[in-house]
Design goal:
Rossmann fold, about 35% helix, alpha/beta, four-stranded parallel sheet, globular, single chain, six-stranded mixed sheet
Length: about 400
Amino acid sequence: MGRAPRILLLAAIVAAGWVGGVSAADLSIGFVGDLAGVGANMAQDQLDGFKLGIKHLGGRFGGNEFSLSVADGQHDAKLTRQAVERMQQNERLEILLVSLDPDHIAPLLPVAVAGRTLMISLNSPPPNLAGKDCSPSFFSLAGLTETMHELGGQYLQQRGYKSLVVAGPNSAAAHAATQALRRGFKGQITEVTSRHGEMDFSGDLRAIRRTAPDAVYLLHTGGMAVNFIRQSAEAQGKERFPLFGPPGMLDQTVLAASGPAALGMGSVGFWSEDADSPTSRRMQTDFEADYGRPASSYAAIGYDAAMLLDAALRVADKKNIGEESLRTALRRAEFASTRGNVRFDTNQFPIQTYVMRQVVQDGRDRMVNEQHGVFLKDVRDGHAGECPMRWSVEPPPKG
């Protein structure tokens, strides 16, 4: 059987008020994500969060009917491009939501530009798209992973730590993450790396004990993260070193599999399960009711994408919904975000608030991230000044 892209057209779903067909829809939206294989939970949560947002909006965006096409990118850049081109051929594609490997995001941008389609990335893209290679056709709702690593370093610096071990895979992404961490943390950093797929961390843990750091910053993901967390708890007992990591690593799949071994782990992120806003509480309650699993930060971003499109289309010119009209409306949109006040910077990346988080056990004996206060408000990434786009950013809302 050939490796043709698997495309699921979500149309004419009456319960959600969605319509199919170019003639019936005012707006055409595509979603392409890596919905199978490693990291599929991220794209699936984002898609399901988006669908929940549609449900809460009564099946329309700003009163507009729409069609939605969904494609599995399969972690393959060529197949992903083919899927998007097919969407554009089938109908005029105004909006493309992407949840892909970072290296597969940039190659889609020329396709979007050629088809006059606006891309909205739901996960972190390569940093150059926030800076010198920014584009009027590209928006990011998640921001940059490197920003969260840098803020994590600042947080650990403020905690008074003098030395860190960074435990992660021997990969270019992990080394880039360590460099971002160094921009925030000025103390000593020692890297302890493992080959991809390693599940026995006894040697790494011995090396860490010899180093005797003040804390460990964990860059492993998925099953590797789970094994490291559990083995470190077993090896160290009550004397274990403090564990921290990026917020994306401490998602519901890792926390559920790690169990009590993850208690006390810290991170700095833009959302937590106890986010104190009506939008977030409603999203979480209904997400679990509809999908049978807790909402994650990925689901929160997907839900935010729906709220963003609704807010933008309420102010866009309904008689002439086109690229420029949508771009301006997205830039200016004030929407009910699960993360509080979120607005776009001049590079069309988010300006948002980050909170300190710690893993605790909730009333249902689940491991969740609990916020421990605001770390920084109105954070910009470090690349907006490199972006040649110039437009006036809306001031932060009062209050």
